[in-house]
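User: I'm preparing a small set of examples for a lab meeting where we compare how different chains pack in three dimensions. I only have the primary sequence for this one, and I'd like the structure in token form so I can line it up with the others. Please keep the answer compact; I'll paste it straight into my notes.
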Amino acid sequence: MFQALSRIGRLRRLQACAALVVVLGLVLWWLLPLGKPAPSGTLTFSTGVRSGVYQRYGERLKGDLAKDLPQVSIRLRTSEGSQQNIARVATGKADFTIATTDALATYLSSGGPGAARLRGCVRLYDDYIQLVVPRDSGVRKVSDLIGKRVGVGQPGSGVRLVADRLMTAAGLDPANDVTPVPNGIDTMPEQLEHGLLDAFFWSGGLPTSAVQELSDRFAIRLVPLEAPLIKELQAAGGSARYYRSAVMPADAYHSVQQGQAVPTVAVANVLVTTDRTDPALTEAFTRTVIDSRDRIGREVHAAQLVDLRTAIYTDPLPLHEGARRYYRSVKP
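Assistant: Understood. Below is the structure token output for the 332-residue chain.
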């Protein structure tokens, strides 16, 4: 009798253990992507000029991506800026990039190669348009640039796009009323310092290290971009609708602004890929961008402004399916 009861007890314990194993298996099946291999391979991330915010952000993001995607080799590739970045991703020469919404809308409306395949992952931070002049310059508004040597950004940059539009809105012909110098933020500050430029435009997060470093060794001033000019800029319609009035906080460049906020134009940045990119890779990439915000933000201030509540709004691009999966997974 005792032996029979003992056998029944052992049988029940075995049945309980088997049931527990089944339950744990179901839980793991539900929580983990069993049967789905982790993303692997090589991806190219097109950034920007070496001293710009895109490149500095990309360098730091690469470290976090390496931890989160250990089987993926990440290559950073410098560029002239947004316009070149978009063309690279759209045509398969890069897998991910950052670009401004005005440049994206321009590429879409022009029907650039591969435009229909572009997808958004994250709305990132805003770029602020900065018109930099020597502190003793007579330039007080954009129309005062007539006859001046003006750094307008490289041909493939977002800076070039907005600089030309701002000068046009101010009644200037960007090709003939100024001497346009097609250089980037890696060289324009030094050229201004040495008198080779009278002014330069820059579009970037705040503060941009190259502008900050220039202000530490040379007296500069930020020219305000006032509301009437911005209204004229927006009147062009089309991709100009992505520009908005903004204010550079008084502490963005403390020694430059001397406690004064500066009115300007802002435009959003978006993390971009295409529908060719694997959803699992895009989901993981998006997660890392959001999760790394605070750490990267300690070194690249603009990254602090990435906000999960607005990250999903990637207009003018449709959201990539992988990014959509991420946002669904963190939805409260």
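A couple of notes for your slides: The longest strand covers residues 118-134. Residues 21-35 have pLDDT under 50 and may be disordered.

User: Perfect, thanks.
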